């Protein structure tokens, strides 16, 4: 599937941005211009079932490999930088060998969806379709008002079947065996997706890890300055 993309800047270097579940390119509203100011041409996708991209025929076509194939179809290879958040980190890792960026950043990546009552449950995401502005603000107290407005708009445009498309992967080992390119993992504090024992495993496998103190899962929205500081040396 050819994905909808949005571009900022016209620099000589290229940066690719891949959002998480329920979001779209608008989640990068501050990150993308900041990278453009640093000399990048920034390209952000809307994953299938998100934003202005097409919808799949059913939830079975919303698996990680489907998303990864879309990235390869839609984005240029050989970029200087690629950043993926949450689901975007999962699918970027599946596509990174084919996209071949010089460097990759995985922001609180969804490389393991825990099983059990406290683990991944698609219906919890689906409930997000009906959240009010006040509820979104309550869950994300550090977000600026504009990010709350963007979240409401993005969720309205989101196909909730994408959440069900991940159910088959709950409990699966989707941890990358190694960094295909030099790779940074930025972590929330604490991260519910990459626990301390997982962080140690990733470090042993060759990933660099940096924690953004006090930030929630959507680091670039919770603490934009902290997120950009964590990228120093990678952008």
Key traits:
235 residues, alpha/beta, seven-stranded mixed beta sheet, 34% helix, globular, AB_hydrolase_fold
Can you offer a commentary on this structure?
- The protein is an alpha/beta fold.
- Helices cover 34% and strands 16% of the residues.
- The protein has ten helices and seven strands.
- The chain has helices spanning 31-37, 64-74, 87-99, 122-126, 133-139, 145-156, 161-164, 196-204, 219-222, 224-230; strands spanning 4-8, 13-18, 40-46, 81-85, 103-107, 183-187, 208-211.
- A seven-stranded mixed sheet has the order 1-3-2-4-5-6-7, with helices on both faces.
- The longest helix has 13 residues, at 87-99.
- The two termini are 29 Å apart.
- The model has no long low-confidence stretch (mean pLDDT 97).
- One of its GO terms (molecular function) is hydrolase activity.
- Keywords: Hydrolase.
- It comes from Streptomyces tanashiensis.
- This is Alpha/beta fold hydrolase.
């Amino acid at each position: 599937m050819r994905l909808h993309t949005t571009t900022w800047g016209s620099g000589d270097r290229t940066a690719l941005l891949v959002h998480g579940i329920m979001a779209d390119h608008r989640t990068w509203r501050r990150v993308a211009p900041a990278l453009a100011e640093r000399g990048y041409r920034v390209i952000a996708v809307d994953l299938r079932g998100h934003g202005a991209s097409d919808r799949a025929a059913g939830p079975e076509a919303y698996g990680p490999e489907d998303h990864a194939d879309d990235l390869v179809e839609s984005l240029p290879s050989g970029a200087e930088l690629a950043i993926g958040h949450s689901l975007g980190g999962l699918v970027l890792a599946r596509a990174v060998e084919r996209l071949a960026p010089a460097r990759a950043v995985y922001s609180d990546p969804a490389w393991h969806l825990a099983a059990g009552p406290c683990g991944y449950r698609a219906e919890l995401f689906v409930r997000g379709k009906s959240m009010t502005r006040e509820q979104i603000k309550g869950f994300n107290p550090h977000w600026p008002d504009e990010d709350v407005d963007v979240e409401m708009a993005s969720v309205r445009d989101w196909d909730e079947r994408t959440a069900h498309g991940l159910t088959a992967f709950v409990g699966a080992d989707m941890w990358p065996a190694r960094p295909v390119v030099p790779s940074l993992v930025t972590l929330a504090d604490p991260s519910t997706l990459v626990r301390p024992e997982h962080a140690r495993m990733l470090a042993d496998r060759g990933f660099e890890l940096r924690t953004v103190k006090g930030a929630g899962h959507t680091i670039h929205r919770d603490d934009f300055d902290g997120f950009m500081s964590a990228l120093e040396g990678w952008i």
